Amino acid sequence: SSHAHSTAANPKPGWWEKFIGPGAPLDTDKYFVICTNILGSCYGSTGPSSLDPVSKQPYATSFPILTVEDMVRAQFRLLDNMGINKLFASVGSSLGGMQSLAAGVLFKDRVPRIISVSGCARSHPYSIAMRHTQRQALMADNNWHSTRGNYYGKMPPHSGMKLARQIATVTYRSGPEWEKRFGRQRADPGKPPALCPDFLIETYLDHAGEKWCLEYDANSLLYISKAMDIFDLGKDHQDAMVKRRQENAGKLQGAMTEQVPQDTCNLVLPEQPYEEKESSSDIMAGTATSSAASPVELSEDLVKGMAPLRDTPTLVMGVASDILFPAFQQREIAETLRKVGNRRITHVELGEDRSLFGHDTFLLDLEGVGGEIRRFLG
């Protein structure tokens, strides 16, 4: 959502309310702050729930697969329309942190500073697996499955959406925080245990899932989460994306009239299912289980892809308790930029002694996250 801060027209607190405003880390006495609805969302920008100009019906799952780079290009189209040639900084967290890095790569002359909080330069298997699980839970809802995502004007996939959000919420916070916050407390200790939400943590997840169902479009969740999975600033991936964009541009005229079958799928399964190899245990031998240990090696492909950021001052922030975007992913960004030759990297990692809020730290820690942003921007 673009509603990062309240306005006179909409006094409801925004999702980064305390971080934006006079005297705040993003000080509106100094800076003109722009926040957009990303491409694919259901809050105003074109997405799956938007009307197809040809059919006059919602795009639903005929909407094209998006990339983070598509979102960034749309944002810079907006800047062009506003007559803004150069930003002071591109600031983002989570998916926004991915967008900020992509903005610097795609528009290096227009982005003189970057702040990426709890983001990554490429999505890693664990994060992809968690988002895949959420999508599968959502699409298993019969209200989605029976309509192949074209549920508009009908019953939405409420149960699947709720379960997907509950899974997501588990990845947004941390076990130590919930230990302190909920412990093993039950909602009503006087009643016998039941299969319905019983522990306080269960009621919390139930509420989080139910609330989200009423605020967001299921297909937007599918498309945006897939865009996050696809994200990779490596040179090979970027080249492949450019080639695909060029091919699609050539097909665009015909695509306006072509009827795409709704019952087709381009999924190709391997002939043999994946099996654990005997050497699997050797892969992790000697690897610590904490987020302080990075299970990935520095990628030369990523170094080549992030070369445009060689001279861009960049703040990279990570959180040790983050299980969705583990701290090694932010460390990968910083180490890659140093390998590129960037000597203006500020890398900050908030340990568990400073934050137990996991991935959501960027929403909650005004002192830790906000303070670093303020210092970096000067």
Report on this structure:
- One of its GO terms (cellular component) is mitochondrion.
- This is AB hydrolase-1 domain-containing protein.
- InterPro entries: AB_hydrolase_1 (IPR000073), AB_hydrolase_fold (IPR029058), HAT_MetX-like (IPR008220).
- Residues 13-338 form the AB hydrolase-1 domain.
- This protein has 378 residues and is of the alpha/beta class.
- The protein has a domain at 124-230: Rna Polymerase Sigma Factor, Chain: A.
- It has 14 helices and six strands.
- Strand 5, helix 12 (327-340) and strand 6 form a beta-alpha-beta unit.
- The two termini are 27 Å apart.
Question: Strands, helices and their partners?
Answer:
Blueprint: E1 20-21, E2 26-27, H1 68-82, E3 90-93, H2 95-106, E4 114-117, H3 125-139, H4 142-145, H5 158-172, H6 175-181, H7 200-213, H8 218-230, H9 235-255, H10 280-283, H11 300-305, E5 314-319, H12 327-340, E6 345-350, H13 361-364, H14 366-377
Parallel strand pairs: 1-2, 3-4, 4-5, 5-6
Family: Belongs to the AB hydrolase superfamily. MetX family.
GO cellular component, one term: mitochondrion
GO biological process, one term: cysteine biosynthetic process from serine
Using brief descriptors, characterize the structure shown.
378 residues, alpha/beta, 14 helices, globular, Rna Polymerase Sigma Factor, Chain: A, four-stranded parallel β-sheet, two-stranded parallel sheet
Outline of this structure?
The chain has helices spanning 68-82, 95-106, 125-139, 142-145, 158-172, 175-181, 200-213, 218-230, 235-255, 280-283, 300-305, 327-340, 361-364, 366-377, and strands at residues 20-21, 26-27, 90-93, 114-117, 314-319, 345-350. It has 378 residues and is an alpha/beta fold.
